[in-house]
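Input record (one chain):
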Amino acid sequence: MEENPSLSRKEKVIKYFRKLGWIGFFFFLGKGLLWLIIPYLAAKGLINCNG
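The corresponding structure, as predicted from the sequence alone:
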């Protein structure tokens, strides 16, 4: 695959996200939310971290 050297950084980012698609967007959104929710629940004592 050939890269177009005349594309700006913003255009490259947009092209990447279009290639990634909605499935990738929701995957990384869910993954990011889990990174926030799991430590919160552990701190509240709703998840037992002792095994």
